[in-house]
Design goal:
Blueprint: E1 6-11, H1 16-25, E2 31-38, E3 63-65, H2 68-74, E4 77-80, H3 87-96, E5 100-103, H4 112-119, H5 126-131, E6 133-134, H6 137-145, E7 149-151, H7 155-169, E8 179-185, H8 200-203, E9 208-210, H9 217-224, E10 232-238, E11 245-252, H10 259-270, E12 276-278, E13 296-303, E14 308-315, H11 319-334
Parallel strand pairs: 1-2, 1-4, 2-3, 4-5, 5-7, 6-7, 8-10, 12-13
Antiparallel strand pairs: 8-11, 9-10, 11-14, 13-14
Helix pairs in contact: 1-11, 6-11, 7-9
Bound molecules: NADP nicotinamide-adenine-dinucleotide phosphate.
NADP nicotinamide-adenine-dinucleotide phosphate binds next to helix 1 and helix 11.
Length: about 350
């Protein structure tokens, strides 16, 4: 390890987001991976689909059951990528013991009263929730730079917020109107624990909506856009593909606004952003524009007679929607170029 390298750990290294973190951080020139952990020993009494021994040997480090003392002694920074309910508790503990912590779960994103309503789980310690900085990098850099505890955003929330923010900030959204967010995700968004809904015969050749009216990213999107409760109608749907989020948002805009004004508004906000790609008006993004990258690609179509704008936004849920954005936030905290370790701009194809 070089002296300038930061020691980084991943708790949840056997999960989809954890594995993506390993993929990125193994090539990151400023860090050294020093600690990889899965769930704590006490939680190992659930159904296992694969034994630890059948994991591909994806890194020279062993993946151990999580243990706080080992993590604290071996890391400067830790990514916690466990299921909601467990993740925030462990993130809070490691932060209280002096580590810089980036939590990928939803546990630290909402105030505790809202968290209990939308997640139906006991909240993480209030002090940690109140201290955590929401890590949507593009809109929160000054706070992220100074933070030691990050609530990394949700995948649907990232994709929808990036699609909508310029319209709200630029005053083009017709205030107090409902925004409809039609969102579709690849099945890795549900994590690697198998369920009936994510079982191959249920999913292959199928397509369905889930958690209609009660998806936990609804209040997260409203909060990050500073809209009042109930402003967003979010429909989340499961696509029979492994990765990717596709959002189509329907937004009432001021009737007089033209496609050129909308285009200019998005360019004002995003032209200096390394991970946002704007398509010319009329061009529509596809999942395969972004898979395997940290990019968000955005296109739009105006219906001038109805005063409705459709905004199309795509990300890779495991990259900009999880591990990629988490590393982007690490780069901001450390004062490194934001693209370090995330330079890959060519998506998987086909
Ligand atoms: N998947 C996505 O696209 C995505 C996007 C944004 C945010 N997130 C969030 O990131 C976190 C991780 O998501 P993921 O999809 O990577 O999860 P995952 O694939 O289900 O992996 C979960 C990880 O947590 C451990 N784990 C499983 N059950 C546990 C339990 N009851 N208590 C403690 N640890 C447990 C697993 O370890 P073992 O190997 O020991 O079981 C594994 O390392 C979640 O909070 C999720 O909401 C996910």
């Amino acid at each position: 390890m070089r002296e300038t390298e930061v020691r980084v750990g991943i708790v949840g290294a056997t999960g989809y987001s954890g594995r993506e973190l390993i993929r990125i951080l193994s090539r990151h020139e400023r860090v050294s991976l020093t600690y990889l952990a899965r769930s704590p020993e006490g939680l190992k009494n659930r159904v296992e689909t694969r034994s630890a021994g059948s994991e591909p040997r994806f890194h020279r480090l062993p993946v151990l059951p999580y243990e706080a003392d080992a993590c604290v002694s071996q890391c400067d920074v830790v990514f916690v990528a466990l299921p909601s309910g467990s993740s925030g508790q462990i993130a809070a503990e490691l932060w209280a013991r002096g580590l810089v912590v980036i939590d990928l779960s939803g546990d630290l994103r909402l105030p505790t009263d809202k968290y209990e309503v939308w997640y139906g789980k006991p909240p993480a310690p209030k002090e940690a929730q109140e201290t955590a900085v929401y890590g949507l990098t593009e809109f929160n850099r000054p706070l992220i730079r100074a933070a030691r505890l990050i609530a990394n955003p949700g995948c649907y929330a990232t994709c929808a917020t990036l699609a909508l923010y310029p319209l709200i900030q630029g005053g083009l959204y017709a205030p107090n109107t409902t925004i409809v967010v039609d969102a579709k995700s690849g099945v890795s968004g549900a994590g690697r624990t198998p369920t009936q809904n994510t079982h191959f015969p249920e999913l292959a050749g199928n397509f369905y909506a889930y958690r209609v009216g009660r998806h936990q990213h609804t209040p997260e999107i409203e909060q990050s856009l500073r809209l009042s409760d109930g402003s967003i109608i979010l429909t989340t749907q499961l696509l029979p593909v492994a990765r990717g989020i596709y959002v189509t948002a329907y937004v009432k805009v001021e009737k007089t606004c033209s496609i050129d004004e909308i285009d200019a508004c998005f360019h004002r906000v995003y032209d200096s952003e390394p991970f946002i790609r704007l398509l010319p008006p009329g061009e529509i993004p596809e999942l395969k524009h972004v898979l395997g990258t940290n990019l968000c690609t955005i296109g739009f179509h105006l219906h001038p007679n109805q005063g409705v704008l459709q905004v199309f936004s795509v990300i890779d849920n495991l990259m900009k929607g999880a591990a990629g954005q988490a590393v982007q936030n690490l780069n901001v905290i450390q004062g490194w170029p934001e693209t370090t370790g995330l330079e890959q701009e060519w998506p998987f194809y086909p």
